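Hi F.,

I've been meaning to write this up properly since the lab meeting, where we talked about keeping a consistent format for the predictions we share between groups. The idea is simple: the sequence comes first, exactly as it goes in, then the structure tokens exactly as they come out, then a line or two of notes. No screenshots and no reformatting. I'm using this chain as the first example so we have something concrete to point to.
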Amino acid sequence: MKKVAWILFGIAVLLSDLMCAHVAYAYRDIICGTEHLGYSAPPSLAFLYAIPYLFGIVALAAVGVVILIKARKRQA
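Output, unedited:
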């Protein structure tokens, strides 16, 4: 069970890296769009892309913690 928890924590870390890359790409895209293509949205709008990733990261971490707690209770 501990291995499953650590795998979930690893997936959460990878998801956070993916979130950073996606938000950075969207931010750059919106900046270029406002300068060259006439977008009217502010670049800070790109940070809204982080919300679904944050829900996933929190959910994976919470499930990992629950699994670790249950695994420790079984050992005792």
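Notes:
The chain has one domain: 2-75.
The chain is about 80% helix and 0% strand.

If this format works for you, I'll send the rest the same way.

G.
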